[in-house]
Amino acid sequence: MMVELDTLLDELARRHARGEPLDVEGTLARAGDRADELAPLIEAFLARAPRREPTAESLAFVRSLDEPPLLRARVAKSLKVDDVVDVIVAECELDPEARPKVRRYYQQLEGGMLDPTHVAESVWAAITRVMGRSRTLLSAPSGPAPAAAPMYRADALVVLDEQLVSRAAPEPRQSDIVDALFLGEPAD
Amino acid sequence: MSDATRLSMRDARDAEDNRLLENGEIQLLLSGWVETIRDMCIAKMRGPIGEDVGQAVCERLWRELKAGRHRDGRYPFRVIVYSVIRWVCRGWYEPGWQESELFDLDGAAPDETETVIIDLTLEQFVATLPPGDGEIGALHYLEALEPGEIAERLDKKPNAVYQAISRNKGRLREWLEE
After folding, report:
1. What residues of chain A lie within 8 A of the CB of B142, using their CB?
2. How many CB pairs under 8 A join A and B?
3. Contacts of residue A63 in chain B, CB cutoff 8 Å?
């Protein structure tokens, strides 16, 4: 049943006065096909209503803005690194043996040590799905813009034991596929 | 409550923002805006994508604050906030906009001058109500009392309070449409 806009606005104003979350999304949903009519009124209300005191959660959120966005999103979702790695391995259809390497690469990506633009779309699709955030937000720099172009240290830091093994097999190995997924190198 | 007092409430909030800005308490300043930013973005974007947009707004503001911007007090911080919200929401779906501009501090910046400084407050709405309804409106919207509590406080019949609240609902909407 669709609720009158006057009532929805009244309820919103009362939640605001009580210091409760406003649930704007739920309020718009209850307006049904009149959501477009209600939304500007909610905006007007927010612009005119007294600003509330910061909460512990909002302060914690602002403090986290200096952390890498991937790490921030993962912590917000209460996910472990292994949870994300499991999703990447599954959605990119990788063999279980590739998992340790995926984990290392993911941690470098999360720590800002891997160029996010080189990471394959399929990996980002898995990450964005499990994080519930867009790629733009997850791969944005967290601090002030650097004075010079960022220097990604993947080549220097990633000394993987797989590279020491001679490549006798003609078919691409899982490790090479993982390299391609995270470094953008061809899997040949 | 006089008009001067109500205006001073808004001015006091602006002054508090300025004080936090001048003292470099930028975490506290922005954290006071996080909920409003998120809610306004959800309203503007008509759904949960507003969470992402709100986060982008906070990130942009945070980077600007850390870079020492807006300390000149040229505009109240709330004007900066509304300006960035409008700017991010407007550009969100433009191809390439997010990558090229959103996080580039030296790139295109929102124009604060295009945002009308909002001088209206909820307290002022209550002040526009007729005396009897205004008294009830203040307790209803500013102090969040329940109708029964309002009736008791003002020594009125509950039915009279409900009728005033009903009238005020329509007035609130009309006021927000102005």
Report:
1. 17
2. 146
3. 27
In this structure, the answer to whether residues B21 and B101 fall within a common structural domain is yes
Residue B137: give its domain's CATH number.
1.10.10.10
Instruction: Kindly state the tokens that stand for B127.
Output: 């002040």
Domain end point (choices B64, B93, B114): B114
Q: Which residues of A touch B63 (CB under 8 A)?
A: 143-145
Residue in A with minimal Cα distance to B65: A144
Report the pLDDT value the prediction gives residue B122, as an integer from 0 to 100: 82
Kindly state whether residues A92 and A160 are assigned to the same domain.
yes
Nearest by CB to B34, from A17, A41, A62: name it.
Answer: A62
Contact A46 B43 (CB under 8 A): yes
What is chain B's pLDDT, residue by residue, as a tens digit (178 residues)? 444 444 555 667 888 898 999 888 999 999 999 999 999 999 999 888 898 889 889 988 998 898 888 888 778 888 889 888 988 888 888 776 665 555 555 555 556 555 555 556 788 889 899 989 999 999 999 888 999 999 999 999 999 999 999 999 999 999 888 7
For residue A82, give how far its alpha carbon lies from the nearest alpha carbon of chain B (Å). 24
Q: Is this prediction's pTM over 0.90?
A: no
Of the candidates B23, B38, B124, B21, the one whose C-alpha atom is nearest the C-alpha of residue B77 is B21
Chain B CB within 8 Å of residue A76 CB: no
Number of domains present in the structure of chain A: 2
Average model confidence (pLDDT) across chain B:
82
Q: Count of CB atoms within 10 A of residue A27's CB?
A: 23
- Assess whether pLDDT exceeds 80 at residue A142: no
Facing A137 at nearest CB: one of B55, B67, B82: B55
CB contact under 8 A, A25 and B47: yes
Q: Which long-range contacts (CB under 8 A, 24 or more apart) does A136-140 make?
A: A136/B56, A136/B98, A136/B99, A136/B102, A137/A69, A137/A73, A137/B52, A137/B55, A137/B56, A137/B59, A138/A69, A138/A70, A138/A73, A139/A69, A139/A70, A140/A69, A140/B56, A140/B59, A140/B102, A140/B103
Looking at B61, B85, B114, the residue that finishes a domain is B114
Whether B92 and B136 map to the same domain: the answer is: no
Same domain, A131 and A172: yes
